Amino acid sequence: MSKIIRIGTRDSELALYQANIVKTQLEALGHKTTLVPVKSTGDLVLDKPLYELGITGIFTRTLDIAMLNDDIDIAVHSLKDVPTVLPKGIVQAAVLKRGNVNDTLVFKNNEEFLGSKNAVIATGSLRRRAQWLNRFPTHTIVDLRGNVNSRLQKLEDNDWNGAIFAAAGIGRIGIRPEESFNLDWMIPAPAQGAIMITALEADEFTRTACAELNHEETEICTTIEREFLNKLEGGCTAPIGALAYIKDEEINFKGVLLSEDGSKRIDVTRVKKLGEHSDMAQFCADFVIERGGKRLMDKIKSNKQTNVFSTKSFTEDQRLLFHEKAVAESSDFIKISLNRIHPRFLKNEIQNVIITSKNAVESLTTNYSAIELQFKNIYCVGRRTKRLVEKKIGKVTHTENNAKKLAEYLVEYIDGTEVTYFCSDLRLDDLPNILEENNIKVTEVEAYQTKFDGFKVADTIESAMFYSPSTVESFVQKNKTEVIAFCIGETTANEARKHFSDVRIAKVPTVESVIELVNTHYAQ
Is the CB of residue 251 less than 8 Å from the CB of residue 224? Predict the structure, then answer.
């Protein structure tokens, strides 16, 4: 049976329209698909301008996390919303043929206000705001957020002269008003008008399927625009525009960087033969930087203080998942020391084995080869522990999100009346107590030791991220102040509730889901 490709998308009308384009094209190639709508932080927070939220990739992070958590196979995005650096393991699988690249002004009554000193224009984009004020410095800009339909309704309900939209957006869902025209003078956002598909790098089947949808000319142009954006270190929080197009075997490029109020503007244009354009983005970015762009970018970037602390060190790719309102630091608040496991525990095949952490897996595989680990039934806690067990030891019989749920499952379904539990010296009592109360003998083998290694964090810390009861205990040894506790699971949360009043639990027990909790909080 062929794989059903799960298409992740935001649940707005435009996002669903774009996802259905991908769905239709994949199914035309013979693939089976299903849509998985996901509400993003950007859709939930409608009372602040995007540039005030300071969030790069606000509309994409939730889908990134869903993909890393194996809830979806691909994600469909407006490419202009996608950060220029993708999380590790996620790749651009395809870019569809580009639509209208322009920004469009939708106006009320008439266009006479364009010649007047006073007018009110609505937009949530800092790039559009800056370019409009550069051209019409006496006009007033008001914030406009929400999906396309709600923004059009807000324009109708308010005493504004007009509002700015992406032409592709209002065109795709067929709601472009007659009272509108394209702003040919306004340089669009990098990759505006293009639909992009991301997939897991390791998912060869899905990447191959999506590659058939790729439009090479659009890919070339949007790649140059996004490289220009990346070189300037900008995102949706910086007023940067870029547009590349191919004509007569030449690539034409124009880019712009402005101050937030539009009073300063640096433009760049360049033409290169197709195939000789590899340095185009770098050249144009350097041109802008050398003409005052660095000073402009430095001014845009505000000084930020750390407000989130993680009791487990991040990988660089996990760090990229945070939006800019959550300024995070991380350090390992517990240190793990692997024990030598005596051969007497493993001399015969063990019928039932419990493994509740990746540390136990590392201890077992450091001491013995997979062939020496003769386990009939392996029960574990957590998706990632399961994946590591199956990669290094063997097939997992059953997994649960926490130790208490696993114990309750074993009481009902265990094959036999004995288990061997490879655990830490600081393990919780829930699992062995529940099993022994139900006449299941538990042989505990101390596979590793957990040592507290916490320290006093900065006074600016408002929230902390916890991944085990031990990380909570280590944190509170050195820090007595109240913080918001973002926890990886219920067991960790139970320990956190002993010390903090505001405790929140991730949807699934992964670091990425804890980061999603943080993102949701700091976007409010």
Answer: yes
Mean pLDDT of 15-38: 94
**Separation between Cα atoms, residue 163 and residue 155, nearest integer Å:** 7
- Counted residue by residue, the chain has a size of 524
How far, in Å, CA of 357 to CA of 385, rounded? Answer: 6
Alpha-carbon span 368 to 52, nearest angstrom: 54
450 Cα distance to chain centroid: 31
> Which of 284, 278, 282, 245 has its CA nearest to residue 266?
284
Task: Write down the H helix ranges in 256-357.
Answer: 280-288, 294-300, 316-319
Pairwise CA distance, residues 312 & 22, whole Å: 38
Q: Is residue 63 helix, strand or coil? A: helix
Q: How far apart are CA 55 and CA 217, in angstroms?
A: 29
Residues in contact with 478: Cβ distance below 8 Å, sequence separation at least 6, in sequence order = 454, 455, 456, 457
Nearest one of 218, 242, 196 to 74, comparing CA atoms: 196
d(CA 73, CA 66): 9
CA separation for the pair 451, 425 (Å, rounded):
9
Inter-residue contact 109 to 43 (CB < 8 Å): no
Quick check: 323 and 519 in contact, CB under 8 A? yes
> Is residue 81 flagged as an active site residue?
yes
* φ, ψ of residue 207 in degrees (nearest 5): -60, -40
Under 8 Å between Cβ of 23 and 33: yes
Distances (CA, A) of 164 to 80, 126, 127, 136, 256: 16, 12, 11, 14, 18
For the stretch 419-463, pLDDT in tens is 999 998 887 778 999 999 999 999 999 999 989 999 999 888 999
List of E strands, 10-58: 32-37
What Rg value do the Cα atoms of the chain yield, rounded? Answer: 27
Measured distance CA(126)–CA(352) in Å, rounded? 59
Q: Give the SS3 label for residue 258.
A: strand
As a dihedral over the C-alpha atoms of residue 495, residue 501, residue 507, residue 511, rounded to 10 degrees, the angle is -60
Identify the H or E element spanning 430: helix 430-437
Q: Please, what is the end-to-end C-alpha distance for the chain in angstroms?
A: 44
| pLDDT tens, residue by residue, 166-224 | 999 898 888 889 899 999 999 999 999 999 999 999 999 999 999 999 999 999 999 99
Provide the pLDDT confidence category of residue 524 given band limits of 50, 70 and 90: low
At CA 58, angle to CA 465 and CA 163, rounded to 5? 150
Annotated active-site residue in 43, 73, 81, 203: 81
Phi/psi of residue 349, each to 5°? -60, 135
- Whole-angstrom distance, CA of residue 400 vs CA of residue 382: 6
Would you say 75 and 93 are in contact if contact means Cβ atoms under 8 Å apart?
no
- Is residue 68 within 8 A of residue 5, CB to CB? The reply is no
